Amino acid sequence: MVKPLTVFFTAAILLCTANTHAAVLPARIFSDHMVLQRGLPVPIWGKADAGTMVTVQFADQTAKTQADPKGHWKVWIKPLKANRTGRELKVSSEKDSTLIHDVLVGEVWFAGGQSNMGYTVRGMARRLPEGKALADAADFNDIRYRKITEKNAPTPREDLTAGGWVACTPKTVHSFSGVGFVYARRLHLELKVPIGIIDCAWGGTPIEPYIPTEAFTGHPTLKKLAKLAKAGDFEAIKKMRGGTFVRSPAWLAGAIYNGRIAPIAPYAIRGAIWYQAESNCGTGEDPRDYAHKMRALINGWRNVWDRPNLPFYYVQLPQWRSYAWTYAREEQRRAMDVKNTGMAVTVDLDFHNDIHPPNKIDVGERLARWPLANVYSRKVHFSGPLYRSIKIKDSVIHVAFDHVGEGLMIGKAGEGRVTELKDGTLNGFEIADKTGAWHAAKADIQGESVVVKSAVVKEPVAVRYACRPQALKDRPWNLYNKATLPASPFCSDWSRMPYNPQLNLPAK
């Protein structure tokens, strides 16, 4: 019989021996159950003793390199075909090796944002019968999820410290991002290939810490943010145009990027999804210039991944009581001028003044339409009506839209569905007179346009739609195309909506 003390010392010796010979290790983003991106060159990297010859083997491919003087190494696997059968990836040197098990090949998407991106399937299942049904049926071995939980950092980290990939089952799915899961589910059902989601969302955070420091260029607001972040001047950031309420160093420019994104870039991904802006338009915060921050985020990530056209799709904010959310939604709409981006509109989905609306089903489904159409060439409508232009004639404003599809309609939203109201009234339209005052207006669909007028405005100069924090409960914003996708809020002349911080207060 072996005595317990002997067993303890034997185990200790074996552990020390293992550590001594662990001369080659892949970065921690590479772990059991991961998904590798199909159709693109795949980088594999890690650490080893300086000068160590490293061999990586996967799917009948072998790549070799030598660790540099600092112990860094990287190889590239040639583009792979989708594969639903788990295989082993081997990283080895002359002395030792590491095996990564159950590796699939498919489509990988990177997800970022704050709490609404982080809002879990568990939360959705607790509050929505439809959410519970999806969770109970979530037996998808081909969907894999990797949550990044690293803290912020003043400079880019080399590697992660914890965590691993998880295969989707009815038990594990509850910890997944609700939006991320619904998005992955839709892609998987349509494409029939494995889907990987890497989620770096952090609740309550503004956009600035996700942007690489070097991307804070061009616009004066970006330059000032970078300067003040470097100085750690929380109060000055709060007071500036486009300022935010910085609660800790984690909220400073580049801080979350350094901790959560830098260690995994350039892991091969197809594209990115984003759901954030709440913490850039809260009480005492200024949403102006958010579009410039979005452009910096998109271009910054594209530079990091060396993918100038990396697909980037994001969620426009839903309804909420804050005046500033109106401005944030417009800033998000304007950020669509960046090529290869898209926006899922959600202002029609919640009327309960809930900063965490539980219906992430429609959000994820609408978001997934963008890549299905524009990345994977599926014949699906991917956008609701987007404002294009106006014509004013005889006190009437004619509004033209892009993405009309098969026509405009008045709709009614519900969890997972939108129904057409044949005899409904179009809500949410207002027109401005020459003094700048806004008036409720009557709006009617005529062909592919909306015709707007008011009996009290004889010389209208501008029109807006859904440009308030919330719709009235008995008059929901209800303009859709016949693909059941909602129109984005807009104002034809944004100069007629001057920003007033005094109105950026919660309703009493």
Helix content: 10-25%
Question: What low-confidence regions span 5 or more consecutive residues with pLDDT below 50?
Answer: 1-21
The largest pleated sheet is described as: 11 strands, mixed
CATH class of the largest domain: Alpha Beta
CA-CA gap between termini: 74 Å
User: What CATH architecture of the largest domain do you see?
Assistant: 3-Layer(aba) Sandwich
Shape: globular
Question: What distinguishing features does this structure have?
Answer:
four-stranded antiparallel sheet; 11 helices; 23% helix; eleven-stranded mixed sheet; 508 residues
Topology of helices and strands:
Blueprint: H1 4-21, E1 24-26, E2 35-37, E3 42-48, E4 53-58, E5 61-66, E6 72-77, E7 83-92, E8 97-113, H2 115-118, H3 121-127, H4 129-136, E9 140-147, E10 166-168, H5 178-191, E11 195-199, H6 220-231, H7 234-239, H8 255-261, E12 271-275, H9 290-304, E13 312-315, H10 324-334, E14 341-344, H11 360-374, E15 386-393, E16 396-402, E17 408-414, E18 417-420, E19 429-432, E20 438-440, E21 442-446, E22 449-453, E23 462-465, E24 479-481, E25 490-491
Parallel strand pairs: 2-8, 8-11, 8-12, 9-11, 12-13, 13-14
Antiparallel strand pairs: 1-3, 3-6, 4-5, 4-7, 7-8, 9-10, 15-16, 16-22, 17-18, 17-24, 19-20, 19-23, 21-22, 23-25
